[in-house]
Fold this sequence. Notes:
There is one protein chain. By secondary structure, the chain is of the alpha+beta class. The chain is 37% helix and 12% strand. The chain is globular and about 65 Å long.
Amino acid sequence: MSTGDANKGIDSSPKAQDLPEKLLEASKTLAKRLDEDSGRRKAIPIRKSFVRVEKGADTPPPLAELVKRGGRGGGVIVKLYLALVWRCSGGDFDTDISARTWANLLGLEDPNIKGARRIAKAIKILEECKLISVSPRRGEPSVITLLDESGDKSPYDLPSTSYATKKLRRDIYFKVPTTLWTEGFIQRMSAPAMTMLLILLAEQSGDVSPGESDGKEVWWSTERFPQQYFVSPSMRSRGTKDLRDLNLLYVQRASVAPPGNNRTFARERVRNVYRLQNQALVFMDEKSSTGKSAPKTSPKKGHTKKRSSPLEQTLRAWKEAGEGAQSSS
């Protein structure tokens, strides 16, 4: 399949100035609650196999496949998957949060009806791409369980934990800063912007020290980029432009020698060099990067009621308010 076929339906979702303030504020509130629920982890771990393939592969990575399958709504699918990893990777790798809540988190219009339908469609595509498994329940939200980011239907495990114990290339990962959610950047991104953000985060994160990210400069040859990512030139151009408009990416023209060529008079080529900046940088290591989980504490004697998390408190408040308080209507 050509890169052009993989990107026929470029997302035309609202840009930053077009997302209604009411929807954005509701989304940011929920994102902050989810962030508080995640404890000290301030970044979402994603295996690089989600965004790129090994040399010589003839099938697109899951990211390119989701954008292709989603067409104009490809950005919603990618954002939902990122949110699912954020929510599930810190516990038992599953969740039963309702579709309307995910719609609110993504800042979708009419979250209770139209937004919830878009989420349901996105969940179906994620299941078909073998990134999640879904267990329906009568009268209640389905239970969604994460699978490995590669789409090979393997059970999910934290990439930091797996890499620390096995040192396998398949577990090399990068991190997505949660500030991009809590400050409303991801909610406003187009599918091309989301695609290029994840690709840039994956590229600037080293393979020797997985997960580390320092905002280093990134550049590609015109041959290598489509072979690894199955992304068309038009999507690459649109995505980098949108990231620059959000002040998350710095681009400059620079002379770049061929990789591995240290000769003084080696042929140089002028290329675009990319560097993520501001909220797109990971400033804090996620707590699980050492492969250790936080110690569990036993409840004090006489206390049997479990304290609600910030996210659970927000969801309960919304339910009591008729679950429609955040609707755009």
